[in-house]
Design a protein that fits this description.
It contains 14 helices and 18 strands. It is globular and about 60 Å long. The N and C termini lie far apart (58 Å). 35% of the residues lie in helices and 26% in strands. A hairpin with a 7-residue loop joins strand 10 and strand 11. Among the domains are: 7-106, Rossmann fold, CATH 3.40.50.20; 127-193, Dna Ligase, domain 1, CATH 3.30.1490.20; 318-412, Glycinamide Ribonucleotide Synthetase, Chain A, domain 4 (Alpha-Beta Complex).
Length: 412
């Protein structure tokens, strides 16, 4: 008797935000989404949501759980987390399902290895050094000269990333990372030349450019994405150069199948490769693309993982823009103005991230984004204007001082 392959596994995928879209899309195309995690999770909106709890998030334990469940039921393996990209490839390979080359994924996940492989392929667009200690980071910054950017080798969402204007700042930041991200003491960090110029996100699938989006980044020293223009107002010839550079980089590292989010800056030397992410763009980036072009990259990602056909052709040509509300210093109790923001013509979504409300201090990474605006209009200029106006209408309310003090005391 033949068993239908109707289950798609998601490794450690959140059941909110972008992760929730993965689950809902899987359901929409007739698959049963199943979360593989150490702790079972439920979500009221997912009527066919299932759990596959495992003792450890290891390839061995996951494959054992799959075999106990029934390997023939599994159509494919996915994750919305970049940290699980290599594990997705290894699990899918172990059970004979479509998968990327795990060695190539590992190169893309490791920012230093990415730089090494690109350098061997002739890329000389960004100077870089590797460092384990603060003094090594300072030495690397001196060799490169000027402003540098420090990146943990396997971080995502701008976690641990900092722009450093001097060797002393580079040293201090790496010494701080040794405490906040202890793994950096073992694998080191990348010290890179900081490229001045506009930044772009290139959304690719099977080496095909799906979208080129202008990215807006928070002021230094952090480097948090706070907006995306899709498509950008930039000259189409500039966007074509950006896309060609991204495609060349993907070919150089051997990443030729599936979704990739490639970041490129347009510097004085031309397009400069910032990083390669062997996954679909995070946040609401995929929704930008779907609204602008009617290309569903989440559905294509699931279908690829399950060996099903997928369509990446554009069905329309509109514009969709995202703006993120970045927490400004202290903790927030609430954000007012949602209805006012939604009243702006062209604004289609206004959402909040309450998990970030209680954070304090300067913005450090994506977790300091506490809300977002999504617009859809006929032209980029209209979509940008709508999103910017809606963002101005959001009003964060600072948390009362005594609440902040009590929370800090209880967290000790």
């Amino acid at each position: 008797m033949t068993t239908s392959r109707d289950v798609v596994l998601f490794l450690d995928t959140s059941v909110t935000g972008n992760g929730l879209q993965f689950f809902e899309t899987a359901k929409a195309i007739g698959l049963t989404p199943m979360l593989v995690a150490k702790r079972p999770t439920e979500h009221a909106e997912l009527t066919h949501f299932q759990n596959m709890p495992v003792r450890r998030m290891s390839v061995e334990d996951i494959v054992k759980a799959i075999d106990d469940f029934g390997r023939d039921r599994i159509a494919g393996v996915c994750s919305a987390l970049s940290q699980r990209a290599e594990m997705v490839a290894l699990v899918a390979k172990a059970i004979g399902r479509p998968h990327c080359d795990e060695a190539v994924v590992a190169v893309c996940r490791d920012k230093f290895r990415t730089r090494e492989v690109l350098a061997d392929a002739g890329f000389r667009d960004v100077l870089f050094e590797r460092a384990w200690t603060g003094e090594e980071a300072a030495d690397g910054a001196r060799k490169i000269g000027g402003t540098v950017i420090i990146k943990p080798r396997e971080s995502s969402g701008a976690t641990g990333v900092r722009i450093c204007r001097s060797p002393e700042e580079a040293r201090d930041h790496v010494e701080s990372l040794a405490t906040t991200m202890p793994q950096t003491r073992d694998i080191g960090v990348v010290v890179e030349e900081y490229i001045e110029g506009p930044q772009f996100g290139v959304e690719m699938f099977d080496l095909q450019t799906i979208a080129v989006r202008r990215k807006h980044i928070s002021p230094p020293p952090a480097s948090v994405p706070i907006g995306m223009d899709n498509p950008p107002l930039d000259d189409p010839h500039v966007c074509a150069r950006i896309a060609a550079h991204a495609e060349k980089a993907l070919k150089a590292v051997g990443y030729t199948r599936g979704p990739a989010h490639v970041e490129v800056r347009l510097g004085a030397k031309g397009p400069c490769l910032i990083e390669i992410n062997p996954r679909l763009v995070g946040g609401v980036g995929a929704e930008n693309v779907r609204r602008a072009y009617s290309v569903d990259m989440i559905e294509a990602t699931i279908r690829l993982a399950c060996g099903l056909p997928y369509d990446l052709s554009r069905k329309k040509e509109r514009a969709s823009v995202t703006r993120y509300l970045l927490r400004d210093g202290e903790a927030v109790s609430e954000v007012l103005g949602r209805e006012d923001a939604l009243a702006v013509p062209g604004v289609v979504e206004v959402g909040f991230f309450p998990d970030g409300f209680s954070r304090t201090g300067g913005a450090r990474n994506y977790e300091d984004r506490i809300g977002y605006i999504l617009s859809e209009c006929d032209t980029p200029a209209e979509a940008i204007a709508a999103a910017d106006e809606a963002l101005r209408r959001l009003r964060p309310v600072a948390e009362s001082g005594w609440k902040t003090g009590l929370r800090r005391l209880l967290s000790r």
